[in-house]
Amino acid sequence: xxxxxxxxxLFICLxxxxxxxxxxxxxxxxxxxxxVIQPLVELPLPIxxxxxxxxxxxxxxxxxxxxPQDVMLPAxxxxxxxxxxxxxxxxxxxxxxxxxxQSEAAIARAPQWIRVQLRHTLNQLEPDRQLLFAELxxxxxxxxxxxxxxxxxxxxxxxxxxxxxxxxxxxxxxQKLYEIDGELDYVEILDFGSAASGGDYYSTTRYWKRDAQGxxxxxxxxxxxxxxxxxxxxITDEIAAYIDPNIIENNSTHSNNIVPPPEGKFWRSxxxxxxxxxxxxxxxxxxxxxxxxxxxxxxxxxxxxxxxWINQNMSFTSNNERPHQPVRIYQKRFGRCGEYADFSSAxxxxxxxxxxxxxxxxxxxxxxxxxxxxxxxxxxxxxxxNNPLVYxxxxxxxxGSVFEERSDGLFTPVTERYSEGVATxxxxxVDANLQPVDGARVVLAIFENSPRFDCEAYxxxxxxxxxxxxxxxxxxxxxxxxxxxxxxxxxxxxxxVSSAEAGESYSYQFQIxxxxxxxxxxxxxxxxxxxxxxxxxxNLASTGYYITGKALWDDIDVLGxxxxxxxxxxxxxxxRLLVTDSDGAVFMDLYNFCSAYVNEGPDxxxxxxxxxxxxxxxxxxxxxxxxxxxxxxxxxxxxLQGWENAVDDPHAPAATISLSAPAPNPTRGETKLWIKLDSxxxxxxxxxxxxxxxxxxxxxLNLPAGQNPLVWDGLDSRGRPASSGIYILxxxxxxxxxxxxxxxxx
Length: 746
Fold this sequence. Notes:
Jelly Rolls, 4 domains, disordered N terminus
């Protein structure tokens, strides 16, 4: 004890007598070698196995959800994204409706070229009908998927929402195409890709034909013509349905003979195989043909064969019943030009030849054109083939407008093929402020004692329509919109040219005495956002638009609504980008008014960033309420981003997932990280490139609480090494998600 007491005072004395700590600069000897004294450091926390210490990366915004906006945006509608505050999750938003997960899967399985239109159609269906047709696409086998996808995408939503539309008809239609193809020598269906391979796959047909010198050559049908005029189960104004051939068709509804199988028959299957006494069977007639059309005049081609077959099965007369359905026309075996045109289109399509109806309303006649390296005029009842001027020079007709009628009711002028002298009538529709009115209906009439309907068209985004018309006629016109008419008295017409001259162009402007309605947007200051956690970024651009009109006559209007048709224009169209809250989204949808925190455009492109405040739901969407009627085609991305503290900080109170730094990172292949969970969870793990595109979906994981290892082997979804670049590994849990950047160097 005495020794201890002696040592302590001695130590204290030595300490009190020591020199002050530290050295002045003049006390440092800088001669000779230089030594570096390392500062003291804290001992590191234990490192998890295989997770070497990584440099701390600065915090930044990371992509959490990408919502592509490759969509059709109708006038008066909104499409974009909705941030759901309770779940901190973004989802697609559309004022048209909500897509089911099964529909998203069906769209992904369809060819790329039809996905936008398929999304637009499915979005307008009731949930049970949407599920019905989505599941048809999800379960349909190759090679039928593209044909079925097209038929659903281009069908009227009014039809698909009704009991008239049966999924089995769409499948039977596609199956019969390929069955007939396997039996005929002059034609083959070509499949370029498949649903299994994905991407921009499609089908078409290739024919044998003889040119004017008698040489056999092959012709491939353009993709759009194959689907619209051969695959399509709808010809003109009839409802695509199963028909009982023995029920007299009601002239008002044209739907009373729609019944399901087996009593109901589909025209492509029924007419091809049907045996009825001494009448020739279509299958037998087609099996003898070796070419579609012999331009050298020799016999044995399909067009001459089916012209003969039609006239063997039909007589030109009528009674009170005027059916639209090919099955009923076939059962009656007689009709006038309307029945002949519908029936002839059906027979040509059964023979795998694209065909359509051509009409002159003002002269009360209709006939056909088929496609054979170009459209060829054809009227079986009179045995006319490639003789388009026979009506003008042989019958003495003086045409106004002659137009081709697509199955959705879109009219395309073809007057120049049927009249030796044509003129052009251009009409621009403007509002009270001289602003162009898009999507306005313009009705053209010829005047003979009183106006007679001749044709109609809808204005483009410049307010313009053009009619190609025959010479020597007196023309009048009017325009209808939801906000006004010209002339102002309903049903009256404005005088145009009294006698059109060949080669002349006539231009007119119709001014509606009211302004084009515009949305009411109240701008609000950006809300406070004290916590940096989530934000929306949007980059949108128009890639074109659709001149949008209503089908003038279609049997589906028995349900009470006129369906719409679309004519594509590659010219970009303006769009508005808005950010608002839940109330604003409802008011914009219902009343064309909202209070907005971001209001960009209308312009051909739109981009914005919006930091999302906590506490309520938010909406960011493209809006087309400034248009009168036309549909904008949009492309781009809305992305939900998260600040790294918000998505993977283990100390954040609401976080339930945290990720260690990947190691090694950068990597030349495999990299490993650890997932820390506060409680057991089911996780979805995915790899995305820097643009947000999915590279790989790893298996779903059911992990316990605590530390769990995770390895990415550097491969994509097809088992191929991913290319060099920056990737985002995203882990999505039941309520939250987290992500890490991985740099891959090959």
